[in-house]
Amino acid sequence: MFPLSKWVVFEPLAANGRAAGTALAFGKPHRVHYSFTDAKVILSLDADFVAPSFPAGLANARGVTKGRVPDHEEMNRLYVIESAFSNTGAISDHRLALRSEQIKAVAALLDSLISAKASPLPEYGAGQPKPVAEFLNDAKVQKFLGAVAADLLANIGKSIVTAGLHQPAEVHALVERLNVLLGNVGRTVFYTEDSPDSVSSDGAALKALTEEMAAGRVDTLFVLGGNPSYDAPSDVAFASASKKCRSACGSACTRTRLRKPLPGMCRPRTTSRAGATRAPTTAPSAWCSR
Predict the structure, then answer these.
(1) 286 falls in which pLDDT band (50, 70, 90)?
(2) Overall fold of domain 17-196
(3) Model's pTM, two decimal places?
(4) Is the N or the C terminus of the chain less surrounded, counting Cβ atoms within 10 Å?
(5) Mean pLDDT, the chain, as a whole number?
(6) Would you state the pLDDT for residue 1?
(7) Neighbours of 123 (CB within 10 A)
(8) Gap between the Cα atoms of 116 and 112, Å rounded
C-alpha cells in the first residue's frame, strides 16, 4: 500500500543483546521461550525474569511458583547473580551480588566448568578458557559458582540458564551454549526464529532515519506513541533533521504529553501559493514508533 514507506522502532531503554547473542550462537537471531514449570534448577545471570518488563514475565512468575510449593516433596532451586535487588532475587534460594560487567566472566567460567564435564559434541566447539578476573579468586564466589555448576550438571534437561536483556551479546551467546550443553533445548528452553532486523539496536535505526531526513530523503514523517525529539540520544539530531521533511505528524499523546513537541507536528512543511499542500513526491515516508 505504501511501497516507499519504512517502519522504524525506537525505545530509549531498549536492548538487543539477546537477539545479537542468539545470532552469534545459532547464525540467526531467535526469540527465547522458557518453561519454568519443568525446571528443577534455574540460574539467573542478572535477569529479573519475573518482572513485568521482562518478556513473558507474568508467565515466567507463574511457572516458577508452581515449582516452589513447600508441601511438595521437592522444590525447584533458584540461583540468582545480580547487580541490583530485583523481584527474582527476592524469591531466590541463593543470591550472589556482583557488578553487571562481571557477569561476562561468570558466564565464561561456567562454560569452562560445564564443558569440561559435559563432553560437548565437536560441532559445539571447545569451552571457554578459564577467565582471568580477580573477583573469581574470592572464596565465596568460587563456592557459589562451583555449587551452581554441579547442580546444573546433576539436572540435565531440567534446568534453565537466562541472562538479563541489558547484558551484551557475548553473554547471551554463552548462556544459549550452556542451555544446549545441559540438554535444556526442547525441554525447558525453546526458540523461534526472529527477524534479521532485531539484531540492530533501536538507537542505530533512529540514527539511520535521522541521517536520511537530514539528507532530504524523507518526505513525510509519522511519529506514533513517542517523541524522539525529546528522548533521542544526544548525538542524534532528530529534531533539526525532522525540519527537512515536507510534513511531520504525531499521535495525540505525542503532541500533548511531552514537553518538547516535534517541530511542525501535524502541519505540512511547505504549501503552494494557493495554500494547499504540495503534491506527494517520490520521497519515502518514515514511520517511527515506540
Answers:
(1) low
(2) Dimethylsulfoxide Reductase; domain 2 (3.40.228)
(3) 0.74
(4) N
(5) 86
(6) 67
(7) 5
(8) 6
